[in-house]
Amino acid sequence: MWTSRCAYLEHGQNILNTRPFNISVILPLISLLFVLCLPPFSVSAETIVVKIVLNQEPKDEFFVVMSDGDFLVRLEDIKSIGIAEPEGRIIEISGEEYISLESMKDVTFFFDEKNLSLQIALPPGLLPKKAIDLLPERRSKVYYPSDDSAFLNYRLNYYSVGDYNQYDLTNQVGVRFKKYYLFLSDSSYTMTDTEDRFTRLMTNITYDDRKVLKRTVYGDFLASSGELGSSVNMGGFSYSKAYQLDPYYVKYPMMNISGLVPLPSEIEIYIDGMLARKEKLSPGQFELNNIYSYRGAGAATIVIKDAFGRTETISYPFYFTDILLKKGLHEYSYNIGLLREDFGVESNAYGDFAFSAFHRHGFTDSLTLGVRSEATNGLYNLGPEGSYRIRNAGTISMSLAGSAGEKTGIAGSLSYIYQEKRLNAGMFTKWYSEEYANIGTLSLTERVRSEVGAVVGYGRKDFGSASLEYATTKKYDGLDRKVITATYSKSLSNKLTVFMNLRNIREEKDVNEVFVGLNYYIWDNASLSASHRSTESEDIDMLQMQKNTPLGEGIGYLVSAERSDSDSGSDTSLQAAMQYNTRNAVYEGEFRSGDGEEGSYRLSASGALVYLNNVFGIIRPINDSFGLVQTGSLEGVRVYQNNQEIGSTDSAGKIFIPNLGSYYENQVSISDKDIPMDYTMPEVIKYVSPPLRSGSYINFDVTRYQAVTGRILLKTDEKIKPVEFYEVRMVVGDKEVAFPTGKEGEFYLENLKPGEYGAAFDYADKTCSIVIKVPMSDETIIDIGGIVCEIIR
Question: What residues have CB less than 8 Å from 179, skipping those under 6 apart?
């Protein structure tokens, strides 16, 4: 550093002071040392304030040192404008590090003396990279409840036709406890004129860890080992990677795009022609991360407009599929236990020991490989599987499996899928040796030899949607089957849709089937449909009107009439069904009647008994999770779920929501128009993401606006005087709050619930304690009068 050279000048001065010298020798030496003591720029160096402009993007104003065409900028400042790792000659001035612009590689600069601006230009690759994530931003304020809760679903059903009568009772018990654990058990009871039977169905305890997306089940569960395997009902232990615990997590590969802009620019990102994001970019590198689509093949188009209005458009083709796993991700399920036997008939019939598992891993964004296996008494089945994305041309999947036991067999499968905005196509083939077996096929008598299928579909708004499908199954024993199906549908208007289906089935005989239908939306949630189905032996015409049951309280119904003409004669049948959702239950009724047949009818009532936050309730059946909304003690406040009205709060300010979606961010809101003017509420919308089959307490904290006023007085020497302009500390719940007193000791507090509150203030190096008593009152402002402090400690 140049400042260190001054040490030589100081050393020269010491020589002059301590030793005899020859002036003719020493003077040139002193001159040389003085020159060395100067900084490595001209003595004409000047410190000025300039506005720095980097690659045409204005930055802030900075102090710089100007000297003979070079500029020295503080190292800290050069980093602050976006040059993260500057390289060049570093000079220390007054203890601070400066960098010479002239010494920086690939950097050009120009000083605009008139505007006092320093224009710096350098390659965009030297500037920092800006990363833009295209995944939707997670809501910052989502409520993740962990309340203990319980429910009992029930359904009573009565069915009658002629002299036959049947009564059914089904129920399900669910208990959520200790935040992570869920106990579930369901059963059914059936009684007829000749028998009655009780059957336990599924019973288990589930532990979900949402942080790592893993699920553990103890008890009964369904297990699948994947392609060429089987799905079995087991009782035992299951451990799985469960991405469904976060429905907003994208597990399949996405696309990243990087580039650079030399000037300030605006970038527009289009996915399949739809604007996905618009961003402003500083000069430098950029990276677009997590570009995704649900349409298979498509294109991401990047439009870049720089500061001079020049536009550049770049298109990147892509192919997205949920068959693959993102690089580095694992997906698996390991299951062990005993096979359920006669499920739905016997309650506790467990058979042979069994094992079922699969494990998949994303080795790259284009290749996912895995292995699957299952085993039971006398049978072992194992094989690899994999899926590969063929660039932008679709995905191919392959599986192989071998089984061993009493006999040995092999099987294989190959499939291909291609999807895009308008076109989709796919094919698959499976083949099995005669001795191949998995757990699900052990009891089959007719074994499949091979399966082949193919489908192609095309859709466009002005054309409609059309598809052609082919499927054939060949067996070692039994009849082969071949089916060819052509379908077409089109929306003729916003309310009218037409659909057609042509099918040829070849099995024992050749059958052709034609189906034509119209659907007309009369009004919201109500539709009228008509259809005609024809085969060689029968023609069927149907007319149907349907109104969907609302999410909350209300009525839905279905009325249909059907007429069939066949070689054996004609027949007309009628059907009428209704569902009525009340606050506490669901009631259903159905009636069917036909020519020459006795009429049948079915009646049912279903609901749930629930417990949550020390509140018991009777509500509609719970199919997933449920919630309890609290709006203080206000009655008649309308409550909405995802903008659909659920009902209104009762006299205690409560209402149950029976159908929250577990793990999703359910929007629950209240109508602020139903809140009186003298009440306050911090929010009217909450986003609630409950665990599986659980209850969530949703408190909107609606409180009546009520003020408390009074005076604080102090008794000293038999005199009482006001405590003016003091700070008083008061405990409210588990928090300490402070409030000031004013003239004459007056104070003002808001929204204190009735009760007694301890308070204190410091007076003359002592503490005075008082009790503020808030009475029950309907008044908006409660005056509690004077509070006298008599004890000072």
Answer: 146, 691
Q: Cβ(438)–Cβ(228) under 8 Å?
A: yes
SS (H, E, C) 546-577: EECCCCCCEEEEEEEEEEEEECCEEEEEEEEE
Distances (CA, A) of 754 to 255, 394, 762, 782, 789: 59, 68, 26, 11, 21
Q: SS3 for 32-54, per residue? A: HHHHHHCCCCCCCCEEEEEEEEE
The pLDDT of 602-611, averaged and rounded, is 97
- pLDDT over 80 at 791, yes or no: no
pLDDT band of residue 765 (cuts 50, 70, 90) is confident
- Residue corresponding to tokens 């050393």: 11
Nearest to 425 by CA among 451, 399, 396: 396
Q: Residue 475, CB half-sphere, CA atoms under 13 Å: how many?
A: 11
CA separation for the pair 165, 167 (Å, rounded): 7
Q: Which of 211, 136, 208 is nearest to 177 (CA)?
A: 208
Identify whether the C-beta of residue 720 lies closer than 8 Å to the C-beta of residue 713.
yes
From-to residues of CATH 3.10.20 in the chain: 2-122
Q: Is 2-122 a domain of CATH 3.30.460?
A: no
* Sequence letter at residue 349: A
Amino acid residing at 762 = D
**Distance in angstroms (rounded) separating the CA atoms of residues 544 and 180:** 46
pLDDT in tens, 51-63: 998 888 888 899 9
- For residue 402, give Cα distances in angstroms to 374, 437, 495: 11, 8, 53
Q: What CATH number belongs to 707-789?
A: 2.60.40.10
Residue 353 has pLDDT above 70, yes or no: yes
pLDDT in tens, 460-479: 989 999 999 999 999 998 89
Domain 132-138+254-319 has CATH 2.60.40.3110: yes
Q: What 8-state DSSP symbol labels residue 768?
A: E
Contacts 24+ apart (CB under 8 A), 521-527: 521/494, 521/495, 521/496, 522/495, 525/550, 525/556
- Report CA torsion sign: 91, 93, 95, 97: negative
In which residue ranges of the chain is CATH 2.60.40.3110 found? Answer: 132-138+254-319
